[in-house]
Amino acid sequence: MINRHFSTPVSIAIAMLFCAFSHAQKANADYKIHLYKTNETLTIDGKGNEATWQKAEPAKDFFMVLPMDDRKATQPSEVKMAYDERQLYLLATFFKTPGNTYVVESLRRDFSFGGNDNFLLFMDPFNNQTTGFSFGANAYGAQWDGTMSNGGSIDLNWDSKWVSEVRNHEDKWVVEMAIPFKSIRYEKDVTEWGVNFSRLDLSTNEKSSWTPIPRQFPTASLAYTGTMVWDNPPPKQGLNYSIIPYVLGTVGNSSIEDITYDNEFKVGGDVKLGLTSSLNLDLTINPDFSQAEADRQVANLTRFELFFPERRQFFLENADLFANFGYDEIRPFFSRRIGLGVPIIAGARVSGNLNRNLRLGLMDMQTDKIDETGLPSQNFAVLSLQQKVFSRSNIGLMFVNKESLDYNALTDDLKSEYTKFNRNLGLEYNLASTDNKYNGKMFMLKSFGPDSSYNGMAQGAHLAYSSRKWSWRVQQEYISENFTSEVGFVPRNNYIKLEGSVGYLFLPASEKIVSHGPQYKGFYYFDPSMNSTDYVSIVGYALNFLDRSSLSLDVFNEYVQLLAPFDPTNTGQEELAAGTRHHWNGVYISYNSRPKNLFTYNLTSRLGRYFSGGYRSNINAELGYRFQPYVSLGARLSYNNLDLPEPWYTTDFWLVGTEADITFTNKLFWNTLFQYNEQSNNFGINSRLQWRYAPASDLFLVFNNNEQLSPLEGNLWSLTIKFTYWFNR
């Protein structure tokens, strides 16, 4: 009854929006660019001097999105497209005022959008205004590619096989691309795709788009795409497969107690098979992810587990089908639960579109047993279905199963430590209005296990609105005490949560300030009997400047009733007792510098009271300097000072991360990350040299060193060389 009581207002509001926003025409349907097939051999050199480009229809007269969306862009742009039997081609020209310098952080692939002069292509091959692909380049030729989901979110961890070239001139820069049809997924016999083009010019602080887009939305918003009209349906892909083998050798040593490290030689790889032009089968055998980027450490003063994103390539294509069910902290599936610290024997995944409106995700992964700990071999299976309804909404179904094999052969002690099976079954509805102003979600999850202690429920719903000046969101969550998601990310159980926010923007006619305005956020937690356990109320004011810098000030009021013992320093000291109540106030201050500068910095600070009547002072800084386009230097600094009564007294600790990103060319990269975490007494180095000697084919040399400082002293280091090659047909 509690669950139904709190979901009803949101459910009714979402239901009322069905009729209002279900069947309206796409906002920019009248913006069209026509594609014609070419028989000419195009050279991807950034010159664009072939006859095909002289005849191709241009998309031009871009609209300004930022700083204001009521006018045409001041910096002219022009995009042309063509295709042949194998590839989709694009030629884009971006004019600029002579004398304006290019702003580029580095030649690193999948660059930071806000720190580079760049061009991005957004494609919606299924015209569902929900999923698609993005390709792009910055002004010095660094590539960008990712998959699109949720109507405009981009996952840059996905890489595909394609080529591009950029040329710079005094008054313009030109990018030319060739994207193989086998690198993307699309519906056969369809002659209209959604498409849009975006440009960011930091010399004028101007973001522009081929189609008009309200300033509160990203240019990646698929609700505002125009239409790419083919003279004939795109070519059928026929047999489409890729084989991506790897060979790896590692040497290393460990002096940390209970951790051994053996030298190894491994061979494995992935296979990609196009079952249809829109549905893909991925297979992996004896995978290894040692070349994946290292996690950025975070100082943790919370009572709960921290979330770290997935970076392993196998899990990334169509990742939204698996990862976006539920909310950030109610995830029934979290792929990092598979294969971190446990060998993966093999895995298979089918993902993509069965038709224009129905998407399928099916995954099965098998891990090996670990004799030292007694962990049994385990199987992980996931099924996800997503059916589009109305103009941009969808209904989703998910089933997650974790099964321990040969469980009955385990000793009684191991049976109490490991679970025989855990399953989650869920259903959700995602609302997205035609104009993207309204977004919402409703979902229900049920968990199952060997006995009733694993059987529980989780449920949530929200509704959000965003216009040029107003934004608001209401959200509700409920998780029962016994809800169990061993393959998911659910940091806390047994609560009801109510959340809300509202904000307003003033848009002054100012030469320095683009917008400013107040905002409120509130997070309120209750136990199932509706007794308050914790809350945070935040009232603030934000200013956004024309040079893309920003300043914000927030005042917060926080209350916590501890449901379990907790050390407020998270350093292994004395714990506060469960049931104790704590209340404090404080302020947040944040400033982001303008990205055009060679030296950039972002500063945030938290000042105020803390647990047990104490004080907490926190300062965070992100510093960057670039010698464009080849060298980007960065540092992340975090300092916490906790002034508490006895037995803690004063505790302070630093988190320092420094990074050197050297891009010799747009195919040869060297990245080195140093991290020192005083809270966990850990010092780490991750240094990675990557040579992309052919499209999507790499040679990696990776050095890792992890130093445990006093009192748990020890060292773990490894050196890995990994060679991959992408065979494609």
Unreliable sequence segments: 1-8, 10-15
SS content category = mainly beta
Overall pLDDT metric: 91
- Global outline: globular
Supply the number of helical segments. Answer: 4
Q: Could you give the distance between the termini?
A: 56 Å
| Beta-strand residue fraction | over 45%
Q: What is the C-alpha radius of gyration, as a whole number of Å?
A: 26 Å
Helix content: under 10%
Domain Carbohydrate-binding: 44-204
Protein name: DUF5916 domain-containing protein
Domain DUF5916: 242-339, 376-726
Signal peptide: 1-29
Provide structural commentary.
The structure is a single chain. By secondary structure, the chain is mainly beta. Helices cover 5% and strands 50% of the residues. It has 4 helices and 39 strands. The strands form 3 sheets. The protein has a 24-stranded antiparallel beta barrel. The N and C termini lie far apart (56 Å). 36% of the residues are buried. Mean pLDDT is 91; it is low at 1-8 and 10-15. Residues 44-204 form the Carbohydrate-binding domain. InterPro entries: Carb-bd_dom_fam9, DUF5916. Residues 1-29 form the signal peptide. This is DUF5916 domain-containing protein. It comes from Flagellimonas yonaguniensis.
